[in-house]
Write a structure and sequence with these properties.
Elements lengths: L2 H15 L13 E6 L6 H5 L6 E6 L6 H12 L5 E7 L9 H12 L13 H13 L10 E6 L6 E4 L6
Parallel strand pairs: 1-2, 1-3, 3-4
Antiparallel strand pairs: 4-5
The protein binds zinc ion.
Length: 168
Amino acid sequence: MGVIDELLANNRAFAASLPAWHLDVRPSRRLAVVTCMDSRLDVFSALGLRGGEAHVLRNAGGVITDDVIRSLAVSQRRLGTREVMLIHHTDCGMQSLTDDGFRAELQQATGVAPAFAIESFTDLDADVRQSILRVRRSAFLSHSDAVRGFVYDTDTHELLEIFADEQR
Ligand code: ZN
């Protein structure tokens, strides 16, 4: 049995264990969280969130790409969120590659240079600051002021706040 078959069995048990209920499509805490795809960060448990309370947008690194801005624009303008919480984390896979190196690897393997930016980083705090600024400066968002950035420690499970104004 493949992994997905196991998960389907898990879902059958999960669905059978709960009554059906309907929640509003608009997140009740009016919050969007942007974070990494890292498998160790259980966003709902780590933040004490429950279903129906927040949007959670994830990609490699938790970086603010055009597609994240697209999702945040929908989240804010159509689905009522107001605050944005950005979470990077220690020991991130994006710290183990470089933009040039990974781009060359993809091009070498496929013959095609990717059109997207790789968005690797070495300095976690600096990348959180960059992400805060990208949200703040996006003209597409209706609420770009209430954005805060954090680094999650994947070993201790603690969040450390990073302030955008500490420019270097
Ligand atoms: Zn990561």
